[in-house]
Specification:
- The protein contains eight helices and seven strands.
- With 223 residues, it is of the alpha/beta class.
- The chain has a single domain, classed as Rossmann fold.
- The protein has a seven-stranded mixed β-sheet, with helices on both faces.
- The two termini are 39 Å apart.
């Protein structure tokens, strides 16, 4: 009897949201990740703890209603995923104050200067350490022979050294899930597959908007 192929699925939550869900005007709560991973596995065996979701944790900022709402939504998402036995790996989101100096590099900069605006300060939120956690789990799972194929839902090329290692040193198969989705507002912001991930993976599956929309459903709290 032929041995059933074992798969482990790694989803970069932030990457998936910005490249896919945001472009389709939906959110994580309205996306059925459970049905999505079954589609990706395609009747192959998902190993125990083989549904992995990586994301930066949202923190509530005092007096900021949006941050409070975002944290509540993320808490609900985590509870829903855990109810289906997902492994959730988190990292802290780092907030940094950055500024833009108003000069001739800025479009219509004269209008800003006439109004006395010489610089604009803004908060930039960055996710730290998620790629390291994904790479570590990818390598440890390969060394411990937990999976035959790693299905990676991320276009972060920082993962390519780990991918290269598990393929060449542990003879594991890496399947890259990329996306080709048009942005109706700006062609320059279309989502395209990562050429780097294509180069370093064994199997490439490029999904389009219609592939994703079948998993977008109104959120219903699991009882």
């Amino acid at each position: 009897m032929q041995k059933q192929e074992r798969v482990c699925i790694f989803i970069d939550g932030a990457n998936f949201y910005h490249l896919v869900l945001k472009k389709l005007n939906t959110s994580e709560l309205n996306f059925c990740f459970e049905d999505f991973v079954k589609f990706l596995a395609n009747k192959r065996k998902i190993i125990r703890n083989g549904k992995r979701f990586y994301i930066g944790t949202v923190r509530e900022i005092e007096g900021d209603l949006r941050s409070k709402q975002a944290m509540a939504k993320q808490t609900t998402l985590f509870a829903t995923l855990k109810s289906y036995d997902w492994e959730i790996k988190t990292s802290k989101l780092r907030v940094r104050i950055e500024k833009i100096v108003i000069d001739n590099r800025v479009i219509n900069y004269q209008k800003f200067l006439k109004k006395g605006v010489k610089e604009i300060k803004f908060r930039r939120i960055r996710e730290k350490g998620i790629d390291v956690k994904m790479a570590t789990d990818l390598i440890v799972g390969a060394v411990d022979n937990k999976y035959d194929t790693a299905i990676i839902v991320s276009s972060d090329t920082d993962l390519t050294p780990a991918i290269d290692w598990v393929r060449k040193r542990q003879n594991k198969i890496v399947e890259y899930i990329g996306f080709s989705i048009k942005n109706p507002d700006s062609k320059r912001e279309d989502t395209r597959p990562s050429q780097g991930m294509i180069t370093y993976s064994d199997i490439q599956r490029i999904l389009v908007a219609s592939d994703i929309r079948q998993f977008i459903k109104p959120f219903i709290q699991k009882k």
